[in-house]
Structure formats: structure tokens, C-alpha cells
Recover the amino acids of this structure.
């Protein structure tokens, strides 16, 4: 759980950092940043802070081809006994099928001694979305994350530890009670997305929703003769994180 907790904490830090960039690139705290790649790079760089020397313990890859990553999720080779006197070597599929091709935003690998995996083993897949993604985009990413965890082949089942989907959402209603309702509506929304995936008896699901950045009143601007309240900075940015792992 240490690897998982450390990586998730870095993702949360990157969410805060990415939201803070809105003012840098839009001149307003309340405007949502459209550049999803800033969020992606922020997450990759935050996870890299867990390393000592570069690449240790984590090798972080951006925009990994989804089919290649799915292949990485199973053991490259496995040895099995035909009988007491001979041995057969099983190889994973070179070209696995995948329901939704494309690229995975961030993937994390590590060299895990004694795991039975030859080479760098995938630890997690991270899909990231900027502000207010469409429902069909969210559902497609969640389905592919499940596919990575459920893949199997001649060398065995997926060795992937967990997957993460993370998205940012913005709201205009900012009263205290309304901000709580914003978060509850977001929880309910993601609960519906997860329910639509079908039976998940083999998967542990963790959905967290939290405020990432908010300004309810506005920003006080001090002038030479008087102070002025700029209410254009009022905003409520929330983040949703969905973590899948194989049920223990």
C-alpha cells in the first residue's frame, strides 16, 4: 500500500498545482485551464519527486501506447511443467487486442526483485482529464482501466497493482451549503459511472471527491486611495479520483 498511497498523494498535489496555473495562463483564478497536458506533466513531475536517482524506484512514461501497456501488464514469460522430466516456456501475446486504442496519459513502472517479472514491471496506469470532461470520455477511460487490470494470457493474469482516473470539475454556485452540494452531486455522478460498468466483484473501487481550490468572496485589490473587491476570482474547483485494484 505504500507505493499506492505515495503515488496518490502526489496526484493530489499535482491537482492543486494544475488548478493554481489558471491565473498564470488566463489572468483569472476563476477561469478553467483548457490545457490538459499541463495537468498530465504536473502529475508525472510530482511522482518523479518520489525518486532518489532518476528512474529509481519509478520509471514514469508519458503517453504510453495502450496496446503496448496492456501487453506489459502480464508476465513476459512463464515456465510450466509438461511432466516430471520436461519443461515448457509460455510467452505472452505480442499483439493483444484492446477495446479502445490510443495512449495512456501516465504509466509508472518499477524494477521489483523476486516478483517473477523480467524487466520493469508496470505498477499503475493514470488517466487524467482537464475541467468538466464529457460523460462518455469518463466512461471510456474507466472501462479501459478495468481492461488493464483484467487482462490475462498464456503467462497469467495482469500484474498491474492499480489504476487511477482523475478529473477536475468547476462550479459557479459558491455558498457554503451549495459547495457541499456540489461535492455530493459529484460523488453521486461518479457512483453512477462506476455502477454502469457492470459487475465488479473482482475489483476494489475507491472514489474520492474533494475541493481543490475555492474563492467564495473575491480578491481584495489595494489601491492608492481605496480597496476594491474583485469578485471575478470567485470559483469552486473540485477533483474526483477513481482508483481500481483487483479484489483481495
Amino acid at each position: 500500500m505504500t507505493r499506492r498511497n505515495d503515488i496518490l498523494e502526489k496526484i493530489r498535489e499535482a491537482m492543486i498545482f494544475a488548478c493554481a496555473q489558471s491565473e498564470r495562463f488566463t489572468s483569472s483564478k476563476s477561469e478553467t485551464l483548457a490545457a490538459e497536458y499541463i495537468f498530465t506533466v504536473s502529475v508525472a513531475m510530482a511522482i518523479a519527486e518520489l525518486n532518489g536517482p532518476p528512474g529509481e524506484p519509478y520509471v514514469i512514461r508519458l503517453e504510453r501506447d495502450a496496446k503496448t501497456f496492456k501487453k506489459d501488464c502480464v508476465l513476459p514469460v512463464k515456465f510450466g511443467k509438461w511432466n516430471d522430466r520436461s519443461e515448457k516456456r509460455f510467452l505472452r501475446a505480442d499483439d493483444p487486442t484492446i477495446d479502445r486504442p490510443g495512449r495512456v496519459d501516465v504509466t509508472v513502472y518499477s524494477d521489483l526483485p523476486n516478483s517473477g517479472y523480467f524487466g520493469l514491471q508496470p505498477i499503475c496506469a493514470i488517466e487524467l482529464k482537464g475541467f468538466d470532461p464529457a460523460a462518455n470520455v469518463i466512461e471510456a477511460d474507466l472501462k479501459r482501466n478495468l481492461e488493464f487490470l483484467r487482462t490475462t494470457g498464456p503467462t497469467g493474469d495482469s500484474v498491474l497493482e492499480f489504476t487511477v482516473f482523475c478529473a477536475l470539475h468547476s462550479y459557479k454556485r459558491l455558498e457554503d451549503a451549495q459547495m457541499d452540494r456540489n461535492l455530493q452531486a459529484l460523488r453521486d455522478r461518479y457512483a453512477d459511472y462506476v455502477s454502469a460498468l457492470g459487475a465488479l466483484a473482482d475489483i476494489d473501487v475507491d472514489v474520492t471527491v474533494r475541493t481543490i481550490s475555492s474563492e467564495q468572496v473575491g480578491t481584495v485589490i489595494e489601491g492608492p486611495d481605496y480597496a476594491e473587491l474583485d469578485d471575478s476570482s470567485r470559483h469552486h474547483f473540485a477533483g474526483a479520483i477513481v482508483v481500481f485494484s483487483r479484489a483481495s
Observations:
- The chain has a mean pLDDT of 86.
